[in-house]
UniProtKB/TrEMBL annotation:
Residues 37-110 form the Ribosomal protein/NADH dehydrogenase domain. The keyword Repressor does not apply. This is Large ribosomal subunit protein mL43. Belongs to the mitochondrion-specific ribosomal protein mL43 family. It comes from Leptosia nina. Keywords: Mitochondrion, Ribonucleoprotein, Ribosomal protein.
Amino acid sequence: MSNKSLFIKSGFVRAPLQNGVGRYVCQLQRIVLKFCKSHGGSRGIRDFIEQDLVDFAKNSPGTVVYLKPRRHRSPVIVAEYLNGDRVWMSVHQKTHSEITKWIENLRTQQGDVAATRLRKYQYTDHPSIQGPWTPFTFKDPELNTAVLPDPKFGANNRLPVSATEKLRLLFEKQKLSDVQTAE
């Protein structure tokens, strides 16, 4: 582990509160659009505010949208999520379409997952007290001391004869009986 991961918070990638199992809850709680009314670098975000902000607010009623005009500052988008994460993004010199895509991206994610060091690849709210499953979990313990190959542990010895195999055997017997009667 490098020193870089010491300052990154650790956690699990999981759906918060089983989000999407019963119904979907948008994780974006608040979005703040900070921009300058006259600076040229804020042109894209001003175009977004004029053309698409009302539609965005109608399509996502659970998200609070704040507009914060600031003089002579670079435009910034700050997204705050239900799990407490804050994502800060500079949109200086970005076009209207780029800002629309970035805001849609912020709306559909659950926080700043990229800045989280994963502790484990799997996570469950109800861990098993019996331990993890392995391919040998329900195997016969005799198999541990057996010298293989052993016909006792062959896969074909335990399977019952299938209906197709029974029909094939009956056909062969009938064929043999027909050959014997013809002689």
